Amino acid sequence: MNPQAYESLLSLCEQRRSYRQFSPEDTLGEDVVEAILKLASHSPFASGRKNWKIAVVKDRETVCALADAVQEEAQALAAKMEEEPAAFFLNYAKSFTFFRDAPALFIPYCRESATMKSLLRENASAEILQWDRDNLTKSLSCAAMLILLAAESLDLGACYMTGPLLAGKKLNQVLGLAENVLLGAIIPVGHKL
Ligand SMILES: Cc1cc2nc3c(=O)[nH]c(=O)nc-3n(C[C@H](O)[C@H](O)[C@H](O)COP(=O)(O)O)c2cc1C
After folding, report:
1. What confidence category does residue 18 fall into, taking pLDDT thresholds of 50, 70 and 90?
2. pTM of this structure
3. Could you tell me the distance, in angstroms and rounded to a whole number, from the CA of residue 163 to the centre of ligand 1?
4. Residue of the nearest CA to atom 31 in ligand 1?
5. 3: Cβ–Cβ under 8 A, 6 or more apart, which residues?
6. Is 95 in the pocket of ligand 1 (CB under 6 A)?
7. Which of 25, 30, 93, 159 has the maximum number of C-beta atoms within 10 A of its C-beta?
8. Domain ranges, residue 88
9. Ligand 1 pocket residue status of 159, Cβ below 6 Å
10. Burial 91-102 (b: 16+ CB within 10 A, else e)
11. Chain-centre distance for alpha carbon 38
12. Structural domain total, the chain
């Protein structure tokens, strides 16, 4: 038993709230970025293979290009809906681009490996392939949670965002990542205003 460790972790978890207000004038030092990455690197992972990485995007142009891609995709989807659901969806989708003004984005990602597909070949069922892919997203999720806790421990604001992923592979293009790379989330991190 280590009650002190428990209490400090509990208070960190109690304090943490999704933070969505960032300033385009804010900057995040490399020491802070490294501290977050160091902590997240201890995340557990499935399949006995740590094949995920975390991209850090600080370049304003790239951050805006990602937000634009998400916004465009939301508009394109809304165009396929009737008026009322489209208005509802576009309002909801505003929460997918809160990261636009953030000084840094942490993006856990991994290569889409199809371990079970290569083992089972034509005998791989849809369920087992889904299980294989879910293991990747769950591993990315664990890393995302540690990024949030690391940010909170440094008194920084952060938000776990998967809404932006609706833009799919367009995000890969902006990030210069291959088609077969799976993004886990976009996590904006910045100083609390
Ligand atoms: C898988 C996942 C995806 C999320 N995606 C978004 C998102 O796209 N945009 C957003 O503003 N918040 C997003 N959130 C944050 C949730 O809205 C937030 O965690 C929830 O409302 C609870 O609030 P709290 O984090 O302050 O405790 C996401 C959270 C999770 C776990």
Report:
1. very high
2. 0.96
3. 9
4. 160
5. none
6. yes
7. 159
8. 3-191
9. yes
10. eebeebbbbbbb
11. 17
12. 1
